[in-house]
């Protein structure tokens, strides 16, 4: 978290991350170029760059789309979320390079406006087997530009999280458009089946990951414990909660997180106000619940962000009986202080 907006919150981790992404991209482009020349010695440098940047951007889009469901399936992938927007912007830059080189190579030397040429210069809108592929790529690139331009937290706060999230969900539309761009473009000109097989495996990989993550989340949501006669819900055993960590559950139709800190327990909503990140998968750092996605913090007793920040999340009443944690399903207004419940000593 930062008290003011910065272009990039540079730190050692981000520098190492960006160096790894940049180095990996250079190695990929070099390897792609070498393989292209080995396969076809007459291939032009322009063609190698167009295809190299295009395949690199499309590959990174698969990685970006895979990070979310991977984190749902295995928390060891959570550190990748911290820099996912960085990776998304890098992916757009490579896609832009692909589009720019293609525009210059194929559309800039004629009498027709290059953009008009892109929209009308290839394929046949009346022939299903020859549908134009370049307009699909152009629309996808426009979506990726919109996402890259609004990736900063300034736009998240200005547009409000629901609007920002809905806007960035367009990445799935961009993915579908790019699948069509590849299918109706490169696959029509390529006799080598490797590209077609790779495209199919990529689709299966992304769809499979999302289905698996959705099934796991649905199973968790359906495992809601019933209310007791006193209105409380038994969510877990005290022993199930590690120090400075949380146990998550669904109570009253909402996901909650019970945190253990300094021999006490506190319960808050599991949704971070930044991007609805899973607070229960984070930990307590410097006395604050810290979201694993982007480091937003909240005081466990009140659900308030430390000053000068103003984010607030709902809190819940809880109690401990016979080593079990009981939570009342009615949320308190966001930012309401609830006295943490002490953990009874063993045998008490």
How would you describe this protein?
- With 348 residues, this protein is an alpha+beta fold.
- Helix content is 48%, strand content 13%.
- The protein contains 10 helices and 11 strands.
- Helix 1 crosses helix 2 (45-73), helix 3 packs antiparallel against helix 5 and helix 6 packs across helix 7 (161-168).
- The chain is elongated and about 80 Å long.
- The model has no long low-confidence stretch (mean pLDDT 87).
Shape: elongated
Low-confidence stretches: none
- End-to-end separation in angstroms reads 40 Å
User: N-to-C SSE series?
Assistant: HHHHHHHHHHEEEEEEEEEEE
Q: Structural class of the secondary elements? A: alpha+beta
Q: Helix coverage percent of residues?
A: 40-55%
Mean pLDDT: 87
Number of continuous helical runs: 10
Q: How many DSSP-defined strands?
A: 11
Largest sheet, if any?
A: 5 strands, antiparallel
Question: What is the secondary structure topology, with strand pairs?
Answer:
Layout: H1 12-39, H2 45-73, H3 84-107, H4 114-120, H5 134-149, H6 153-159, H7 161-168, H8 171-184, H9 186-189, H10 193-222, E1 233-237, E2 246-251, E3 254-261, E4 264-269, E5 283-285, E6 288-290, E7 297-298, E8 315-316, E9 318-321, E10 324-327, E11 341-342
Helix pairs in contact: 1-2, 2-3, 2-10, 3-5, 5-8, 6-7
